[in-house]
Specification:
The protein is of the alpha/beta class. It has a single domain, classed as Rossmann fold (3-Layer(aba) Sandwich). It is built from 7 helices and 8 strands. A 6-stranded parallel beta sheet has the order 1-6-5-4-2-3, sandwiched between helices. α7 links the parallel β5 and β6. α1 runs parallel beside α4. The longest helix is centred in the last third of the chain and has 20 residues.
């Protein structure tokens, strides 16, 4: 499912329907958990100004828990704990310890939800620029979801992927990798039963000499 361009928080509302009146009363104390993670574009987002107000408006102040834990310049290999590339990569962003950023993320999430019953769990993922040479990005996405399913004891996790922008598509050295990650992110989201992707191509546009230039990853 593709979500049209715009702020991630507002777009998530489109993906998840509001509970019916009867269910709302019976499950009033259940929370909708939103996990925001990824690299620099997620790290730089002020969720208190954009995302949280949007989901609060949709689900109510007492109906949401928003947890953000993001790290700039990191490969998805720093969240997924298993290598899925054969042979294992020796170039690019390869952490010494696979999944080293996942434990801080899940610790922060578990602290935030302690004692709270969950109605929904949604991962909002904005990452990929550090994986242009990654040949198994979809496998890492799948594993990341499986890690969350296991650690949260919650099977039906939603995922919203912010597809990496069109910045760099005019650079031959980065073109193949960027096109691949964009394709994988779109395909993965559309193939997931509770998935969606966000088109971010308009967020890095600027006009120069009458032409629109896509010149920034942020």
């Amino acid at each position: 499912m593709k979500l049209q361009k715009g702020v991630l928080g507002a777009l998530v509302i489109v993906l998840f329907s509001m509970p019916d009146v009867g269910a709302e009363k019976a499950k009033r104390e259940e929370k909708n958990l939103f996990i925001l993670s990824g690299q620099s574009n997620m790290a730089g987002m002020d969720e208190s100004l954009t995302f949280t107000p949007a989901v609060t408006k949709a689900f109510g102040k007492d109906g949401v828990i928003v947890v953000k834990n993001a790290n700039s310049g990191q490969s998805i290999r720093s969240w997924a704990k298993t290598n899925h590339e054969d042979p294992p990569p020796t170039r690019g962003r390869v952490p010494k310890v696979r999944g080293e950023l996942y434990d801080p993320l899940i610790k922060k999430v578990k602290t935030a939800i302690e004692g709270e019953p969950l109605k929904t769990v949604t991962l909002v993922w904005m990452q990929g620029e550090s994986d242009l040479n990654n040949t198994a990005y979809d496998a890492y996405l799948k594993e990341l979801l499986q890690q969350l399913q296991t650690d949260l004891a919650f099977k039906e996790i939603n995922i919203v992927i912010g597809r990496i922008s069109d910045s760099g598509l005019d650079n031959p050295k980065r073109l193949e990798g960027r096109l691949n990650i964009r394709k994988v992110q779109k395909t993965f989201a559309e193939g997931h039963p509770r998935g969606a992707w966000v088109d971010t191509d308009d967020l890095n546009d600027r006009e120069a000499e009458g032409k629109v230039i896509h010149d920034g990853e942020h």
